[in-house]
Specification:
The protein has 252 residues and is an alpha+beta fold. 48% of the residues lie in helices and 12% in strands. It has a 5-stranded mixed sheet. Helix 6 links the parallel strand 3 and strand 4 (210-214).
Length: 252
C-alpha cells in the first residue's frame, strides 16, 4: 500500500498586520477623545466672560444675550460723566475755599489795602498777597518795622488755620545794592523774605508749610522806569498755593 505524502502547511507571516491595525485604531480613538476633551466651547466661554463683565460693572442683565457694543459705550460714557461731575465738584470746593481765604485776608489787611500798600489777588496758583517793602522795612534793610508787626500777626492768624503750602518771595527793584550785609539784591530779597517767614512761624504758622525764595529784581510787577514803579516792585509776596484735585479729600 502506498504511503500518502504528508501535507505541509505554510506559516502566515502577515498576521502581525491585524494587531498593528487594532493598535492604530485604538490610537486614533484615543486622540479623538483627547481632542474632544481639550476643545473649547466658545459659546460657554463667551457666556462666562460676559457674566464677569456684568458683575464688575454692577449691571444686571435683563436677558441671556451678551452686552452689545452700544451698551458698552453707554456704560463707559456713564463712568466718564460721573468722574467729570466729581472732578467738577472738587474744583468748585477748591475755588470756594480760596475765595473765602482771599476774603479773610483782605478783611484783616484792609487798612493797608486802602493805602495801596497791600494787594490780595486770587490766581491760578493760589492767593497772592503782595506787601510793599516800604511798609515792612527801611531802605536797604531786612529788619521788620514795629508798625508792620500787628498786620503780620493777623495774617498769621488766618494762615495758621490752613494746611496749604505757602511760598514767601522777596523782590527788589533794579537798583544794585552793595553793602557788607547785602552784597547784592539776591541777599537782600532773601533776607526780607526770611524775616517775614520767621514772623509767621512765631505766630503759629507751621514751618513745614513755608518756603523762602529770594528773587532780587527778576520778577517785577511793572517796568523799573520811575520811582513809583520801583516802589511797587520792592515787595514781599506771600502765595498760599491752591490745593490740587489729589488733595480734595482734605477740603470738606
Amino acid at each position: 500500500m502506498a504511503r500518502r505524502k504528508k501535507r505541509f502547511e505554510h506559516d502566515n507571516h502577515d498576521r502581525w498586520l491585524i494587531s498593528y491595525a487594532d493598535f492604530v485604531t485604538l490610537l486614533f480613538a484615543f486622540f479623538v477623545v483627547m481632542y474632544s476633551i481639550s476643545s473649547v466651547n466658545e459659546s460657554k466661554y463667551k457666556t462666562f466672560s460676559d457674566s464677569l463683565s456684568i458683575a464688575f460693572t454692577n449691571k444686571a442683565k435683563s436677558s441671556p444675550d451678551t452686552i452689545v457694543p452700544n451698551e458698552q459705550e453707554q456704560l463707559l460714557k456713564a463712568l466718564v460723566d460721573r468722574r467729570t461731575a466729581r472732578l467738577g465738584e472738587q474744583q468748585r470746593k477748591i475755588q470756594d475755599r480760596m475765595k473765602n481765604l482771599a476774603h479773610g485776608l483782605s478783611r484783616v489787611m484792609s487798612p493797608l489795602i486802602e493805602q495801596r500798600l497791600v494787594s490780595v489777588n486770587p490766581t491760578k496758583r493760589g492767593v497772592v498777597i503782595d506787601i510793599s517793602a516800604s511798609s515792612l522795612f527801611k531802605t536797604g534793610e531786612a529788619l521788620l518795622q514795629p508798625g508792620s508787626l500787628d498786620v503780620l500777626r493777623e495774617v498769621s492768624g488766618v494762615l495758621s488755620k490752613e494746611e496749604l503750602p505757602i511760598e514767601v518771595e522777596g523782590h527788589t527793584d533794579d537798583i544794585p545794592i552793595m553793602t557788607a550785609q547785602f552784597p547784592s539784591n539776591w541777599e537782600l530779597s532773601s533776607a526780607r523774605a526770611s524775616s517775614v517767614v520767621r514772623m509767621l512761624i512765631a505766630n503759629g504758622v507751621p514751618e513745614q508749610q513755608l518756603s523762602v525764595v529770594g528773587l532780587a529784581s527778576n520778577q517785577p510787577l511793572v517796568a523799573n522806569d520811575s520811582p513809583e514803579n520801583r516802589a511797587r516792585n520792592r515787595r514781599v509776596s506771600i502765595t498760599i498755593l491752591s490745593p490740587n484735585i489729589d488733595r480734595e479729600q482734605k477740603i470738606e
